[in-house]
Amino acid sequence: MKALVQTAPNALLYRDEPDPAPHPGEAIIRVEAVGICGSDMHAIHGHDARRPVPIILGHEAAGRVLTGPLAGRRVAVNPLVVPPDCPFAQEGRPHLSPRREILSMPPRPGAFAELLRAPEENLVEIPEDMPAAKAALAEPVAVAFHAVHHGARLLGRPLPAARCLVIGGGAIGLASALVLIQAGAGEVWLVEPNAARRETAARAGVTLARAPEAGPEDGSCDLVLDAVGAGATRAAASRLARPGGVIVHAGLLPGADGLDIRRLTLQEITFTGTYCYTPAEFRTVVGLLATGRLGALDWLEARPLAEGARAVADIDAGAVAAAKLVLIP
């Protein structure tokens, strides 16, 4: 099979790789689309020791099953693999398991390839006419769905009465804003410094997409979702949350600077991390995407897998207006 392989920091080669063979309980999927995630970018830049080179990255995948009971079906792939005997899995929170594995991290090759092996229980069927690039959004949108509803459970007021702010207009940020709108949030802001991404968010239905300096006033937001996770965005979240509000930290950039612990303490602001999603949430999101309840999903851009290295370079250069780049094998 052809695959996009990371061979060194900032080095991606499109080359031949051995076809994968399924382990018991697994299937082989012909990949039809795979998204480029921020965590892929982090690894490509050489900042993720969990992903030693050479490695096939990519975990936001959709395609057609070639083997096993689901052969012939089109599916979205839940990349999070957790042993069923794990206590966290038995509690319904497998995403918190210390034994979790994810496609694109050893020992599981990722989906920047023509073929992928994955557990059969991780495959969620999609309609035959659903575009693969849109189905590949299931994983990042599931991350956003979990983050939004995790934060909403911590609010001291109903979501329809809440002013909500998303920091960052990438895929997780934009998806979070769309999930908030779909869930009936009272007011949904998105702040993003890149004008092209603000335009993309506005076209997707986020009417309050603004530059950071034109966002809501300090201390006015009930729910703040930081989809960037940098020092500057943590500082902004600390400043913008209202007394008694909630900050949900979804970004995975390194560092812990920017968080105003004194203000969080004095104003009883809840700060929580968020990671991945449950299998039930992943399935719910596939349904939302397939039925159009999160909009037209036209905020992605598709490119050939063979041009993956150029796509990564364009993301690094800030030359991509789309919230998500999807590669097509």
Description:
With 329 residues, the chain is of the alpha/beta class. The chain folds into 2 domains: 2-137 and 297-328, Medium-chain alcohol dehydrogenases, catalytic domain (Quinone Oxidoreductase, Chain A, domain 1); 142-273, Rossmann fold (3-Layer(aba) Sandwich). Helices cover 28% and strands 27% of the residues. The chain contains 10 helices and 18 strands. It has helices at residues 38-44, 87-90, 132-135, 138-154, 171-182, 195-204, 231-240, 261-266, 279-290, 308-316, and strands spanning 2-8, 11-16, 26-35, 55-56, 60-65, 74-77, 80-81, 101-102, 115-119, 123-125, 163-167, 187-191, 208-210, 221-226, 241-249, 270-273, 300-304, 324-328. Strands 3, 5, 6, 9, 10, 17 and 18 form a 7-stranded mixed β-sheet that branches. Strand 5 (60-65) and strand 6 form a beta hairpin. The longest helix is centred in the middle third of the chain and has 17 residues, at 138-154. The chain is globular. The model has no long low-confidence stretch (mean pLDDT 96).
